Amino acid sequence: MHTSDTSVNTRYKIIVMMMTMILITSSLLLSGIFFLKPVNAQGGMGNDSASGELTTEMRNWEMINHNNLGWSFNPQNIINRDNVNQLGLKWIFPYPKSPSIPGAGTYEGSGAPVIIVDGIAYSATNHRGLIALNANDGRVVWNKHVEYDNNQLVKDYPHVMGLLPHTHAVNYYADQGFIIPSYQSCQVDGHDSLLGDLSLQVLELCGTQREARAWGNLGYYASIGTHPPAIFEDIMIVPVMGSSGKGGRSFIAGYDISDLENPARLWQTFVVPEALGDKDWALHNCDKGWFFSFPEWEESGRMAVPCTEVPMDVLQHDWRKKPNLPLHSASTVATVWGHFPVDPDTGIVYIGLGESGPYPDASKRPGPNLYGSGIIALDSKTGEMIWWFQAVPHDMWDMDCAWGGMLGDIDGRKVLYKGCKNGFLYALDAATGEPVWVFQPPALWIPEGSKGLDPKLKSDMTKVWPGEEGSTEFLGINYAGALEADLAYDGEKVFLATMNMPVLITKPELMEFGNPLLMRPSGNPINSTIYALDAKTGEIVWDFFLDGVGYRGGLTVSGGVLYIPSGDGFLYMVNSDTGELIGTKAFGTGLWTQITIGADASDNMKVFIQTGGQTITSWGPAGIPGAMLVFGLPSSDVDVPSSVDASSSDESVASPDSRSVPQSTTQASGDVMVVVNPFSYVLAGFGLIALIAGSVLFFRSNRD
User: Fold this and answer.
1) Cα–Cα distance between 558 and 620 in angstroms, integer?
2) Counting C-beta atoms within 10 Å of the first and last residue's C-beta, which end of the chain has fewer, N or C?
């Protein structure tokens, strides 16, 4: 072979080799781009390390405590203890100015946690607004404001005290596709989640005046919608409360809503006796109930006293008036401030009840005063009482059990976790109400006169004041209670917040009805302690101390982080396993509402926080309009915080592109969006062909 032929052949080989390498490399790179697994911001594989995709439970936060079980727990792990300090502000929604409500006693803004459903964030305002926002950027999807004529209400229903909105929550009901806020008075309004239009309305929850009198009611109804109803299948469960100190006969009602245009009342279960009194009131369900006795707990650790152990003379005259006093009239026993969970298997609904009134002057109501400051379990279909547990018999201190409860599991045994304002947390057998364990916070300070009473002693069940006879001033347990915050539960640990905030209580005079008391700071230290308890045993795993703060609101746990929004203006983020502080965020205004975690329509996980807009005027400075602040990890979505125009119009401004993001094609990765394309298989095949062709060319050149 000539030299020239050799050099040509060599060049030919080099060219073929280069082309082959280019083809192989290109095909591998192209196919690799589409085969790469998404990497989230914490370095894990996919949005969820187990499945690689977000589930509905991760995307959505549908109720004030996440779901019907009330856990306040999102199982996502994209935002976690390793990256939570990287959260940055994505957008801000300042709440629009709304018409003032005379005598409402509430600020602008919202005191209700944000609800997230399929990329839409819902919020109920303190002044009867209901707003849906695009969770991607905060643009208004729709905005509804409920007009309300208080004067006309009182005229039409003279037995109703009138408007007193107290917006604690808005819930989404997936089976029905509507949302219900808690601000309605003596009625329930369900709104279509996509359009905001009214899809369900139940009027006259309080009944007509004639009906109320037929129910044995000589007082008034409060007309407060404290919390959205519970729904089991096609039955809606709604508490109706008597006015504080004005004598309404409180009850729980069940409605058939299978026909949304014609809801019908199925049952009505009263939780206070008739105004004239029923001497056998406490005997009707005695075999189904338990009393908590503080003296016996302190002495022997006994967790519950069966009602059957209580002497007949104590129970027979429960709620009966004393001689020469006005007719007995019950008060706010059915005030339900928190979530009431429903067992999806049995349909049993668990409801915490408010205090017996009037308080603390209990001269009109001797006896334990069932079922005040207690917990009841009802059959959703019939209203039948399954069991009851009274945490504070003959309550004189407003130690109610009205905040949310949670359904959990202890070695296959269903358990209701429920706290009361006496500071105790009870783990109750969900089937019977018998305590499995009882937790008394060691940091809780209880004044000697407020330690609780023995339901077996008639002398305790007829007391009027918790102090020396004739005393007109005493040191009360707390203004807002020792446990007045929603719990959280991750399946292994129960998280709760207790506080010490004692006040001096003064009795100016004896009034026929009402709560004739004045309260002022006592000068005693104010503080709170957050506990993590072993869910099986009630033993302390860790505690976290907040000095100078009376904690009120709710806890949230997700991704190994416990979120503690505090009245001192800070969001504390704590390792849920150890209690170690991970980081804080300062907001410059008190945080009184629990945070929620959910995904926008692009599957970016976000944290939703309400600021300002306190629902109780004495808990912070006035004039704070309130805003929703939304945080997320650094990602491909918009990182520049935007303040969205909060128009009060009812116009649909924007909406997410889709109510359901295809899980198989789109996955959030924190910093990048990765799409799995079927064309990758074509490219892979092309790469294989190129490899074979290149190899053939190379060997032919060698042979030549």
Assistant:
1) 28
2) N
What domain range includes position 684?
3-38+679-703
Stronger pLDDT, 26 or 478, i.e. the higher one: 478
- Closest alpha carbon to 350 in 373, 372, 377, 371: 377
Please indicate, yes or no, if residue 45 is contained in any of the structural domains: no
Same domain, yes or no, for 696 and 662?
no
Q: What is the pLDDT of residue 47?
A: 39
Residues 250, 347 within the same domain: yes
> Do 595 and 692 lie in a common domain?
no
Q: Please tell me whether residues 587 and 683 are part of one structural domain.
A: no
Q: Do both 646 and 697 map to the same domain?
A: no
Q: What tens digit of pLDDT does each residue of 497-534 get?
A: 999 988 887 765 544 445 556 777 787 888 999 999 99
Average pLDDT, the chain: 78
Q: Is residue 50 part of a domain?
A: no
Residue found under tokens 């279960």: 269
Highest-scoring range by mean pLDDT, 112-121, 210-219, 266-275: 112-121
> Which of 359, 358, 392, 388 is closest to 460 using CA atoms?
392
Cβ-Cβ contacts under 8 Å for 160 (sequence gap 6 or more): 153, 154, 185, 186, 206, 220, 221, 223
pTM given for the model: 0.82
| Nearest of 653, 632, 649, 654 to residue 641 by alpha carbon | 632
pLDDT at 341: 94
User: Is 70 exceeded by the pLDDT of residue 695?
Assistant: no
Based on DSSP, count helices (H) and strands (E) in the chain, helices before strands: 7, 42
Residue 24 and residue 108 in one domain: no
Q: Are residues 436 and 523 in the same domain?
A: yes
**CA–CA separation, 167 and 482 (whole Å):** 22
Q: Are 46 and 37 in contact (CB under 8 A)?
A: yes
How far apart, in whole angstroms, are the C-alpha atoms of residue 487 and residue 427?
12
- Assess if residue 386 is contained within a domain: yes
CA distances from 101 to 104, 164, 495, 623 (A): 5, 9, 36, 15
CA–CA separation, 483 vs 113, rounded Å?
A: 19
Q: Give the type of residue at 603.
A: D
Question: The domain spanning residue 187 has which CATH number?
Answer: 2.140.10.10
- pLDDT reading at 585 higher than 50: yes
**pLDDT the model gives residue 673:** 27
Given the structure tokens 């601000």, which residue do they identify? 183
Question: What is the per-residue pLDDT across 186-244, written as a single tens digit (0 to 9) for each?
Answer: 888 999 999 999 999 998 888 888 888 888 887 778 756 678 899 999 999 998 877 65
Hey, what's the torsion of the CAs at 497, 500, 506, 510, to 10 degrees?
A: 30
Cα 661 from chain centroid (whole Å): 26
44 occurs within a structural domain = no
Say if residue 613 is in the same domain as residue 541. yes
Nearest to 438 by CA among 538, 540, 536: 538
Number of domains making up the chain = 2
